[in-house]
Amino acid sequence: MKAVVVKPPGAGVWIKEVQDPGDPQGRVRIRTLETGICGTDREIVNGRRLTTSPPPGREELILGHEAIGVVEEGDGIFREGDLVMPVNRRPCGKCLNCKAGRPDYCETGQFVQAGANSLDGFMREYWNDEPKYLVKVPPAVREFAILAQPLADVEKSVEEILTVQGRLIWNCEDGTLSCRKALVIGTGTTGLLFALLLKTEGMEVWVSNRREPREWEAKVFQEVGLNFLNSSKGYGGESFDLIVEASGSTAAVVGEALSSLRRNGVLGLFSFPREESFSLDHRGVQTFVMRANAIVGLVNGQKPHFQRAMVHLSAWNSIWPNAVRSMITKVVSVRDEGEVIRVLREKVRGEIKVKIDWT
Amino acid sequence: MKAVVVKPPGAGVWIKEVQDPGDPQGRVRIRTLETGICGTDREIVNGRRLTTSPPPGREELILGHEAIGVVEEGDGIFREGDLVMPVNRRPCGKCLNCKAGRPDYCETGQFVQAGANSLDGFMREYWNDEPKYLVKVPPAVREFAILAQPLADVEKSVEEILTVQGRLIWNCEDGTLSCRKALVIGTGTTGLLFALLLKTEGMEVWVSNRREPREWEAKVFQEVGLNFLNSSKGYGGESFDLIVEASGSTAAVVGEALSSLRRNGVLGLFSFPREESFSLDHRGVQTFVMRANAIVGLVNGQKPHFQRAMVHLSAWNSIWPNAVRSMITKVVSVRDEGEVIRVLREKVRGEIKVKIDWT
Amino acid sequence: MKAVVVKPPGAGVWIKEVQDPGDPQGRVRIRTLETGICGTDREIVNGRRLTTSPPPGREELILGHEAIGVVEEGDGIFREGDLVMPVNRRPCGKCLNCKAGRPDYCETGQFVQAGANSLDGFMREYWNDEPKYLVKVPPAVREFAILAQPLADVEKSVEEILTVQGRLIWNCEDGTLSCRKALVIGTGTTGLLFALLLKTEGMEVWVSNRREPREWEAKVFQEVGLNFLNSSKGYGGESFDLIVEASGSTAAVVGEALSSLRRNGVLGLFSFPREESFSLDHRGVQTFVMRANAIVGLVNGQKPHFQRAMVHLSAWNSIWPNAVRSMITKVVSVRDEGEVIRVLREKVRGEIKVKIDWT
Amino acid sequence: MKAVVVKPPGAGVWIKEVQDPGDPQGRVRIRTLETGICGTDREIVNGRRLTTSPPPGREELILGHEAIGVVEEGDGIFREGDLVMPVNRRPCGKCLNCKAGRPDYCETGQFVQAGANSLDGFMREYWNDEPKYLVKVPPAVREFAILAQPLADVEKSVEEILTVQGRLIWNCEDGTLSCRKALVIGTGTTGLLFALLLKTEGMEVWVSNRREPREWEAKVFQEVGLNFLNSSKGYGGESFDLIVEASGSTAAVVGEALSSLRRNGVLGLFSFPREESFSLDHRGVQTFVMRANAIVGLVNGQKPHFQRAMVHLSAWNSIWPNAVRSMITKVVSVRDEGEVIRVLREKVRGEIKVKIDWT
């Protein structure tokens, strides 16, 4: 069958016929409908993600960790015709967190990741999978359901942040989070998804970028009720209870963010900065301690987060239909191989989420 | 303006002109669009809820605790034209839980409840309110958004149950609640809302009644993926991790439920039984202890739960549109006063939720 | 070697020579110093605990689940001469809670219990054990350290109660539990241990019995700062935020306790009632719901609770030295076989904790 | 009466007669028995703590935030002759955390601190106080009970760290924290108290300093079972699940610590670094995110933590009597005014805790 393959850690990407890898433990047979492309895919394709590895004993890796498929042969839980999305990171089988279905907190580092680490991804016509790694996709949101994969990471992050803030009374006098002011740095896929989710959680949400918002972004901010902050000249003295770094720009952003945290405030680091350093002098450290601040590294959503992502996409479909639809900025047919290779190699101008149509 | 009034604790209900009570602290002016009727309203009307009381110094109480209105004069947060729903129970102002916006856990018992205890309700043309007691209603779900009031109680209940179960690892090996089997006793408004919410949380959900499901119920169960159990002859040996009593029938149900709880299982008591007793012999108590079971009394959702209710109604609007719409079984115009009085006095055959249209 | 054996589920108890069962997985060799006797042991001896079972393939079971020993052959963690106490309930190996070291929340019911269910106990001269089931005993508290086994159950119970109460803000305005009033029903071993622990947690603690306190009890209550309530005529209108049933008398106590719970209050059921029933009419159930009460079954402490028990015994050794010492009411030498059999068969008058000296 | 006063933010310290400030709200009259000296006191005395302020309308501030006194006039809870310790930070009265007795998480920054910010301290012969700010001191631990003030900060810190780690399953397969490896940087008062408390919590604990341990330290490490690490050449490749910075040396320590954190590990920042900066390049930030690490600023224990500190000191009195006694390295009589001034101005060689005897 047709598949998109890479040869990690080298650069390059190929569309070619591969043998069905079988996935012998996978009781559910799934035909791929679409796959999403994210920054990690491009890093792999361009040979810049050095930790990428093929399945044991092979040289090639099938790419892709964002996918929607349709069940062709099911089991008791998943039936023919069900739309499904696979969970991408899978357990090491050894540590307690993995045994409890939470390889996002794997302690051994021996988890595998579809399309990235030791496990084939989903950019292929078919795959077999185990029910425990599959999540149902509500047909009503299929158009933008591919967002559920990055959203799962965001769901897990917000869950984690709320646990960390649970060290104090973080609810406001009306019992909600209405008095809490959050800043999301970055307006890419995860930045926007964070903004939507934190707004859904009831916070006052700001998003920032180092430029003015584009027209379609302004519309989304208006629809959802987000505040925009052009951070090209800093945060203008605003301070926040929660800041999420989702820009993946420079490490220096960390320092700027820390200086804008309120007492008991938390900084969530989600994206990987690509350059530079951040530094904090001893006074900055003192302030961090005195303000009882926290920083937390945010990685990987698991099955409960994929499920919650589907619920939230379904809700947003009702209340912010334009916002979720705006985020699918391009669809490429797998038959247009040249274009597929192109979008895998480099970012499309104005892109939020690009997906490949396998039907 | 026109209002529906009662004279607690006596029986009787009148539609009459009342003076605008003013609600001097209410900065937001709201025009009522619709109000829902629930069992508590009928108990008040029929003089069977002895704890009902009018506002201090008055003899009449305006009825109604489920309402949707439109803002006519707003403030910074709520603007003209916004659809809003009021939170019905309000704090005592003294205990810590009330200060933290959680009069559902009021310790003094001095909270007030709109349309029930010392505070006028919303069955009137206008009311003024404070922003902290108002929740925005997404226009997309207005048709059935009145369900958000009972759903808020259900949201709070599920939150509480999950906290109680947090005493052990209750997540399953896939990190979700997929291995947990829940039974909801009763197929009225709250029974159905519990079933939808527990399904959304990822459990295997059963609903029971002492009769076969009606045709429209069977359709809802099918759409949502609920299992039905005719309990006229018991639970057929099934056992559950969670049982919610939402039938409000006889206290004897409590005993039946306890005997069907699995190890570490929890019984949530939501509805008020109307008759009989339940008893447990010393062996039953021993079993309860050995199985590490829990029972918890479930009351009253607050503002965070109303917000979550709106999110879930918005999601269900996408994924189970028929289920939520089926639950609005009758709409009566406030101009049809005879019919309003009738539906306030007695249950409509086949009723789930009846609402009064004030427009 | 010498051991105390029973032939479950039949009545009877024998002191006899047995072959060293080997315990092949036990890397640590321990010489028994002393073993405690509790009500469960007597139920087994008198053939009244029907669930008791010998190890697979055997007819006899070595009795005893409360023990202190000295290491004769150690490993990296436990060294020759270390005093140790074994954890008595051990995991099923299948469910997540057991995998996480918490067979107190075993889901399969296939855990084993030393001296009670499918595993030999510690009333023998030697045993071998795995380090993960052993807890160090501080030499300073050896005199009464046998209390750590029942105290571990109590530690787990209080941890569980605090989690359940975590559904609301249960801390008081000074951040402690000083405004919370607890009642412990029963003044046996576990009743007293609950009282000491709840006092240590900062609550106002009452203990009750259906008679006036004995002289030594009165001294303990005075030393610790406990209030006593003679419940032969009820609770005199007192109400409580927490009630723990630790009397193991009649099931009727449950009903009395429920009617004395404050709003949001919790009833913990620890002991097994021996007779009668309790019943609650529909009004009682309504009150339970309206007050947002909870009932929770409390079983079995695990290794973290044994560790915490050692810390608390060490603290009480400093602050309430008389109380902890008063609780060891009799020591019988294993060489006095007639007396050992006697104390295993029936309760000693005025007894709190009786132990057998194996040295 | 005699008092130790400073004139913040200027340098200098005086022992002089002052008028009894009255403390009109303080229903309990307390005679000071002893006061402890910590680094903050010396910073104030030497004019290096710029945020120090006298009570409103005054120029002088009575110093001292670590004290033990005896009640001379009590109330219902505290009686004549009771030993008490005051809580030093007190609420702003406005934010929810302060209303809940937790000014350690004050959101306004308007809390006051005895002997440091807008409230007189306890280096005086008498003070009056409110029961809610007083904690009972067990007579058995009076000799070293002054440690309960810094220990309260440490108790709060460990509570906070455990909440933050609660985002994953942090318990080990035996249900305890036995598989978790902690490093405490620094062997001063708080460093040692952290080490004792983390050991009590069941972890494998390492302490580090940039020199070899002194003889008495080595004895304490031996008694408690602590591992020592001479960090003058780094951490020798060791990695940790928890690192607490309690050295207050240079900010650069933060970077070293981060690079030694295991997956899901947490760095607690307790002490104020006095010089230098730390920096992290973009790869370091990536590693922090991928490892799901966290950093948390740790400040101020409140009344529940003082109570827990008393429990732990009482336990350590039994199990590590030498360790706790070793930490009181000097006692100066208040009558030896020259020596009092001297120890307030500069650190005593080999000092852990110096206290002033007011009797």
Name the features:
homotetramer, 359 residues, Quinone Oxidoreductase, Chain A, domain 1, Rossmann fold, 6-stranded parallel β-sheet
Summary of the model, kept short:
Chain A is globular, with a radius of gyration of 20 Å. Chain A is built from 10 helices and 20 strands.
Strand residues, percent of chain A: 25-35%
The pair of chains with the biggest contact is: A-D, 55 and 55 residues
Question: Whole-number radius of gyration of chain A?
Answer: 20 Å
Number of DSSP-assigned strands of chain A: 20
Largest sheet report of chain A: 7 strands, mixed
What overall geometry of chain A do the principal axes of the alpha carbons give? globular
Q: Could you tell me the mean pLDDT of chain A? A: 96
Helix segment tally of chain A: 10
